[in-house]
Design brief:
With about 475 residues, the protein is an alpha/beta fold. It folds into 2 domains: about 260 residues, Rossmann fold; about 200 residues, Rossmann fold, CATH 3.40.50.2000. Helix content is about 40%, strand content about 20%. It contains 20 helices and 20 strands. The strands form 4 sheets. A 9-stranded mixed sheet has the order 3-4-5-2-1-8-9-13-14, sandwiched between helices. Helix 5 packs across helix 7 and helix 11 crosses helix 14. The chain starts with a strand and ends with a helix.
């Protein structure tokens, strides 16, 4: 069947990105097109995007959008059909999507309410020759869009909210209710009220026709206090309309056969050369497995566990390269590991896309010891490149990696190493298993081949979204 979807978000690859949300928003339109669903993406026209959209036709406008006029222009970038909300008083600023040189923008609640308001109006009224069947909102920044449909009329449009990371909830004080164009009668715990204030994410959770998260396990986890971060009761109450759909990765962009040197599941010589080059460039000599960490350096990602487990791993013959930035204390901790183990541990603070490709191409394993992980893309890159994931059993990590348990090894289906609970003892045992498996060349080759055979693209996920849209519009 198919139909039309308006996707509304604060980020989208290749235009603006601070995390995995942008990858999903940018990948879905082309992935869905193959299922018969046409998706357009509504984004704020941040300063850098305004110049890129110069000359695009205006398809919608409003005179008073929280303190100034707004207009929507339409165009396409890298195959993504885009609608950009051009409201200079809200978005034409220095810095990133959420903060500037002096910190977080103080009017973020209004900035993203405006995005949501325009999304709801376009969904309800349509543009000339185009009206969506579904409004698909992403995270708190678009959370008020389903609420505006619910409280101001939906025009027959169904709404979906996808929770990419529940840690960010879009909280505002109660006095903002009227400012955000929300009805006073809905300010109670069963609707908009949230610990005495407002949460745009909660607003979406209570008003959307369907709720998705980015992995089945994360969907179940969000109903528990240790993962739901205050919203677990809201999600549990809506359990029948909550589902998890795994993210995918861009298999054209993340393609071992396109790396230098190239390699594939059936011709792995290029990976050995990539490993040798990597060790040479970082001044490493690693007789055992070479592991990588490509991550934000935060406690959520389990980076604080590295100082407790890496020394034994290095003594067993392993090596480590860390690429990332984040908490200053954790940056110092990984630098200290490099200082303690020269020739075995190397660190580069910051992020470098080209280097990350080289790391996945040349490493033997990728470490993802997260305390919670809605989906995770890093472990999928690892699978794609035969760089075995060592992951905690949470969220999307649990849904994408088959641990090398005795049962999985006996039937030849393991694709990595998993551990639980998320502590130094369990992580250390997983690293010891990594050393042991690497000493068994035939078994290691089988694990690597299994990993590279796993489907990590968008085909299955796009099909799941299409099925959901079909059910909602049936």
């Amino acid at each position: 069947m198919g139909g039309r979807v308006l996707s509304v978000a604060s980020e989208c690859v290749p235009l603006v990105k601070t995390g995995g949300l942008a990858d999903v928003v940018g990948a879905l339109p082309s992935a869905l097109a193959r299922t018969g669903w046409e998706m357009r993406v509504l984004l704020p026209a941040y300063r850098a995007l305004r110049a890129q959209a110069s000359g695009w036709p205006v398809v919608w406008q409003e005179a008073d959008l929280w303190g100034g006029p707004g207009r929507v222009v339409a165009g396409e970038v890298a195959g993504v059909p885009l609608l950009l909300l051009d409201a200079p008083h809200l978005y034409d600023r220095e810095g990133g999507p959420y903060s500037g040189p002096t910190g977080e923008h103080p009017d973020n609640a209004v900035r993203f309410a405006a995005l949501s308001w325009v999304a709801a109006r376009i969904a309800r009224e349509g543009l000339e020759g185009w009206k969506p069947d579904i409004l698909h909102a992403h995270d708190w920044q678009a959370g008020l869009a389903p609420a505006y449909l619910a409280y101001h009329g939906n025009g027959g449009v169904k709404s979906v909210i996808t929770v990419h990371n529940i840690a960010f909830q879009g909280w505002s004080p109660a006095h903002m209710l009227g400012v955000l164009r929300l009805p006073g009668h809905a300010f109670h715990p069963e609707a908009l009220e949230y610990y005495g204030g407002l949460s745009s994410l909660k607003a979406a959770l209570v008003t959307s026709d369907w709720i998705t998260t980015v992995s089945p396990t994360y969907a179940a986890e969000l109903m528990r206090p240790e993962f739901g971060m205050g919203l677990q009761g809201v999600i549990a109450a809506r359990g029948p309309v909550v589902s998890g759909i795994l993210n995918g990765v861009d298999t054209d962009l993340w393609n071992p056969e396109a790396e230098d040197p190239p390699f594939s599941r059936k011709a792995m010589a290029g990976k050995a050369r990539a490993r040798a080059r990597l060790c040479e460039d970082f001044g490493l000599e690693v007789p055992g497995p070479l592991a990588i960490v490509v991550s934000r350096l935060t406690d959520q990602k389990g980076i604080d566990l590295l100082p407790a487990v890496i020394p034994d791993f290095v003594l067993g013959g392993g090596g480590l390269i860390v690429l990332g930035s984040g908490d200053p204390g954790l940056e110092a901790a990984v630098r200290n590991l490099a200082a303690r183990f020269p020739g075995r541990v190397a660190v580069q603070i910051g992020y470098d896309e080209a280097l990350s490709h080289r790391l996945f191409a040349g490493a033997d394993a990728v470490l993802v010891p997260s305390r919670f992980e809605p989906c995770g893309l890093t472990q999928m890159y690892g699978l794609r490149y035969g760089t075995l994931p060592v992951v905690s059993l949470v969220g999307g990590l649990a849904d994408t990696v088959i641990g090398a348990s005795p049962a999985a090894l006996s039937v030849g289906v393991a694709t990595g190493i998993t551990f639980h609970p998320v502590d130094a003892l369990a992580f250390g045992r997983a690293m010891a298993q990594l050393l042991d498996l690497h000493r068994q060349p035939k078994l290691w080759a089988k694990l690597r081949a299994n990993a590279m055979a796993q489907p990590v693209g968008w085909e299955s996920s796009a099909g799941a979204y299409a099925d959901l849209y079909e059910r909602l519009t049936a």
